[in-house]
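Our platform keeps sequence and structure together, in a single record for each protein. Such a record has a labelled line for the sequence and another for the backbone structure tokens. This encoding replaces a full spatial description with a residue-level series of whole-number codes. Below, we set out a record of this kind in full and without editing:
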Amino acid sequence: MSKKMAALYNEMVNIEFYLKDGGLPQTVQKDFKPHWIENLESEKYHADRGSLSSTGLKVLLAQTPAHFKSNWTRGEDVGKEKDHLRYGSLAHLALLEPEKFRSSFVLEPVFEGFTKDGKLSTQSKEAKDKKKLWYANLPQGSLVVTPEDYSRIEGGIKSILAHKKAVGILNGAKTEISGFFRHPATGIKCRIRPDILHIEKMSLTDFKTTRCAAEWFFGPELIRRKYHISLMFYALGVKEITGKMPDKISILAVEKDPPYACALWVMSEETMKLGLDRVEEGMAIMKSCLDTNTWPSYQENGLAQEIQVPQWAFTEQAPFYNFEHEELSNG
């Protein structure tokens, strides 16, 4: 490293900008009382940097402690939403908090205008100006829903209501209730916000929109997206708050496109154990990082390593997954 580069690096480190953050998860005493908070606004729940969430834990396990710290202290999970995830958020709100959805959603109209050559188009300057003006005049807190997404939401909910078991888990359940607890082994304060929780029946369910709800697709999807880790993190929180582990833990998956087929998948004992083991593994790593204020990345020893590719890379039968859009194509 040149002297100039070294000086620049030292200057950046001394600034310690990345350490001036929104806080890290905290450890709490054994007398901390686990509790539920009903009707806690989603923004306030996600803005709490002092208690660990399942999303944060999954970042640590999927990437590295350095990635967790970077994301967590910058509050990247607060107020940011990728376009391809927007529908999932809207569907969650419509199914789990229907009154809030009804009171805040506004259906986006189709904006059209004439081009310079006199053709009617949604991409013309006139159409774009109309859209810009419409958005500028929206009441504060409006939730804009496109006609396409509204049709998807309507179709998905109708599919769920036609599913006997799915309706059963919704009846009498708490939705989007916020819970806070102390992780017993590490003392770290944690928070959960399970989608569907029936305390009397001890039933815990996560709601997911998906490209395909079939077992052949959603089984691997469950592991790849670490839904089993989230669910067991929730289940552990439920146990600490209520004193009981949920008897039934499941995922309600509904497809994004017609016919909006849905499926209720119950977690097997093996899957639950796998999820719980990963939760405990992540919590132990988190405790070590907090205690030492050390947040390693991929190669903490600074040495180069030989990379190994998976065995399926040497076959011609391996499918190609477009992970960004959850699509499966032959390739």
Notes: Residues 7-21, 326-331 have pLDDT under 50 and may be disordered.
